[in-house]
Amino acid sequence: MFGFLLSLFALQFALEIGTQTSESHPSITWELNGARQSGQIVIDSNWRWLHDSGTTNCYDGNTWSSDLCPDPEKCSQNCYLEGADYSGTYGISASGSQLTLGFVTKGSYSTNIGSRVYLLKDENTYQMFKLKNKEFTFTVDVSNLPCGLNGALYFVAMPSDGGKAKYPLAKPGAKYGMGYCDAQCPHDMKFINGEANVLDWKPQSNDENAGTGRYGTCCTEMDIWEANSQATAYTVHACSKNARCEGTECGDDSASQRYNGICDKDGCDFNSWRWGNKTFFGPGLTVDSSKPVTVVTQFIGDPLTEIRRIWVQGGKVIQNSFTNVSGITSVDSITNTFCDESKVATGDTNDFKAKGGMSGFSKALDTEVVLVLSLWDDHTANMLWLDSTYPSNSTAIGATRGPCATSSGDPKNVESASANASVKFSDIKFGAFDSTY
């Protein structure tokens, strides 16, 4: 009886849905086992207007309203999550199989920076994928993405309904982009499990739109694609469990606990430039980033033993580059051996192995995952870990990841000079090996 009363209390004060902007999801087509699918795109709840029953902001800039959100319960009681104007506010458009994400969009009431969206099966449910022994393919155009930007496509183990069934406070659910988590255990999520993350909230000093709260939200992540026109990587991140975190479990850098948390934040990555081939990916190179390219990723085995990359451009199939670094066997895919050798060669902590390696990641993939597409700049490390040298003064093996200058990537400069940047994703396909390209 006591639990029943608690449930009624939670439902009574669940985050409400606003009515000032109707939620109309952009439509997109994709293919599953050769059959055309009709999907929808939804923007993450973190980007949405959060207000009271009128037009007063519950969250303004990078701070919570002390009146409307003095604690998580009052925040859920007082606040409404609004629908989205996808093109006018967020610079997001879809046509046929193509999705375009704009970088800086000047709307009627605010300027929006970047976005993160998910593929929906229907208006209330994320499309779920089981990756093992399957192939995922898409076409991408990063020609309009300079240094410091990341047009990303990846999978995370977030709930199919955005947490709505398990957490009554998460009433808006997947329809309004709730439930995000990833292997970085982000503390910047305004709502975790439907509960406002207002406790210990600290505005971020160099980002006028973001802050961090007491809790993080952790889950397994497979970065299929992180890229701009100068560099690209795909990365495996294993987590020992998927959960809201607090304290040591979050693995926070600020507490010097990066490798004590439940997720492998570094991951095991394959970046052609980093591993010795500086002529493979980029404008005018073997894979020409000035033109659209089709990217194929194969998840081999169950249990998973290998993740393989194939490229298609100009009607030609291009095999992935091979590693050419001292201490790493010449390979062109991600395996346990590659991950172990690359960590030894670079001197990096092998947290991937500590979290179970490929076996642990394979077990995590027994859970279905959600497709995420995003465009962002980096207020923490200026994206140097993707396209430049990181740490910026390092001469160690693997420190250089791309040709961008170590002075590049400052969000203030990127947002000013590259406001019109964009990324285009299209022709998403999922099926058996060698069936999608």
UniProtKB/TrEMBL annotation:
The keyword Secreted does not apply. Its EC number is 3.2.1.91. It is an enzyme of class 3 (hydrolase). It catalyses: Hydrolysis of (1->4)-beta-D-glucosidic linkages in cellulose and cellotetraose, releasing cellobiose from the non-reducing ends of the chains. SUPFAM superfamilies: Concanavalin A-like lectins/glucanases. Residues 1-21 form the signal peptide. One of its GO terms (biological process) is cellulose catabolic process. It comes from the Eukaryota. PANTHER family: 1,4-BETA-D-GLUCAN CELLOBIOHYDROLASE B, GLYCOSIDE HYDROLASE FAMILY 7 PROTEIN. Belongs to the glycosyl hydrolase 7 (cellulase C) family. This is cellulose 1,4-beta-cellobiosidase (non-reducing end). It comes from uncultured symbiotic protist of Reticulitermes speratus. The lineage of its organism: Eukaryota, environmental samples.
